[in-house]
Amino acid sequence: MGKNPLGKNLLTERLLRSWVRCPRKAWLDLHGDSKQRLWTAHRALQLDHQQNSFTAFIKVKPGKGITACEQGSSAVIGIRLKGISHNGFKLESHPSLLQKVPGESCWGNFGYRPVIARQGKRLTKEHKLALALEGLLLGHVQGSLVREGLAVSKTKNGVELETISFTKKLEKQLKESLCKLTSDLIKETPPPITADRRKCSICSWRGICNSEASLNGHLSEVSGIGARRSELLHDLGIRNISELAAYKPTDLARKLESFGEQHVEIAQKIIFQAKVQARNLPERFDKNKVFPEINGQEKLLIYDIESDPDYGENFLHGFMYLERSSSGAWDLDSAKYQPLLVLEECKESNSWSILKSHLSSYPNIKILHYGETEPLTVIRLAKKADITDLELKNLKNCFIDIHDRLRKHWRLPLNNYSLKSVAGWIGFNWSQNGSEGAKALLCWRQWKREKLFNYKTSSKPLEWIQKYNKEDCLATWAVTEWLLRQDE
Ligand code: SF4
């Protein structure tokens, strides 16, 4: 990079939003090798949600560009706003939507305010700063101060609206953020990998960051170490996995005592996990059988749900029926996959009827699942349907959480215990590109929208989701089988 590393580059709203998520991401967005970027469904989901929210909100066809503003269109898209930051850098923003509001501007007795689509339940710092930047630049273009922005979000209860006032405090935050963003962008090397690695799962730079974190034994690679704990360990002089693995649990517990009880409890856990990761070997710490109740079974169900968290919808309940062959071995080749699709119109009571009728074909069968979602969903639906206490108790007894059993018996050399990580470590492969829950959700939303607008719906998105769900069931079985083999 030259003397003025930003050179002809602008400080854009995109960079600001990336920086709020992770300063390293903003740096990589500007200077990184774009060939290293990985596809993520997150951005596509955001755009999809934005389109849904805006369509439900504006109801009219929006005008385009500055001409639409001059003509006083009630909604405007496709506008580019430019300006100069207080520290002399060029700024640019492309607001997704402007809404006409009463007031004064160079175009007449009206003005505009920026509108943003809010994904998730709460407005984040990223939303607020992006809106504030759009407001600042819009003010220069329209010749009058923009005092507020609007966040819209389509939820299952309708369109939610939230006004954000551009207060002095927010203005100050924007200034400070732009300063910090600039100073991070002009660095020769990227800022450090974020300690809160949950953010990485939806980031397009996760490939290179994960490799670097793993190579350097980054503390955030240890399952159970988040941002705060990682900081505490650094303060104690523990900088990587090997150093943590070499620590005595009692010494670490003593040092962490002053930071709170929960850190003491976790000291042993994270040291043992670090040891397993440093040695790259799994460790069994509970010698009791993982699945004492499976031995006597002749048949099993494997269950996996696909859901849309924003709309509180569980749109696919996938079951795989598995039985033993005459030799007594579990016969995966003859396993039957049964997807139950729950359409939006279908009320929760109907969901329960569908599930109840399906489960009644397999009385007292054990149901394997990975994580808490499946039993929580079924039990919630069953309770609403007013089933008896005995029926509820029997239903609860059917579920076997593979994730829970794994965590109670084994430590694996992995930085997390998600189904994708564990099954992948065992050697299971998902066959479709971009196999992740977020893509299944994207396919579902696309299919639903086509159906809603009576477009000719393609069966491809549904086929993709069902194959993905079936492979999640198979992956759950792969983990179960691995655990069963260790029991033998
Ligand atoms: S993968 Fe993680 S550390 Fe890397 S840029 Fe993205 S959020 Fe930051």
Walkthrough of the structure:
The chain has three domains: 11-185, Lambda Exonuclease, Chain A (Alpha-Beta Complex); 216-281, DNA polymerase, domain 1 (Orthogonal Bundle); 299-487, Nucleotidyltransferase, domain 5. 46% of the residues lie in helices and 18% in strands. The protein is built from 18 helices and 16 strands. Helix 3 runs parallel beside helix 17, helix 10 (249-256) packs antiparallel against helix 11 and helix 17 packs antiparallel against helix 18 (460-487). The longest helix has 28 residues, at 460-487. It is globular. The N and C termini lie far apart (59 Å). The mean pLDDT is 91. It binds iron/sulfur cluster.
- Ranges where pLDDT stays below 50 over 5 or more residues in a row are none
CATH architecture of the largest domain: 2-Layer Sandwich
H/I helix tally: 18
> What do we call the CATH topology of the largest domain?
Nucleotidyltransferase, domain 5
| Average pLDDT over all residues | 91
Strand content: 15-25%
Record the strand order, biggest sheet. Answer: 2-3-6-7-8-9
Span of the ends, CA to CA: 59 Å
Q: Which molecules other than protein and nucleic acid are bound?
A: iron/sulfur cluster
Number of E-state strands: 16
**Which structural class do the helices and strands define?**
alpha/beta
What's the number of structural domains?
3
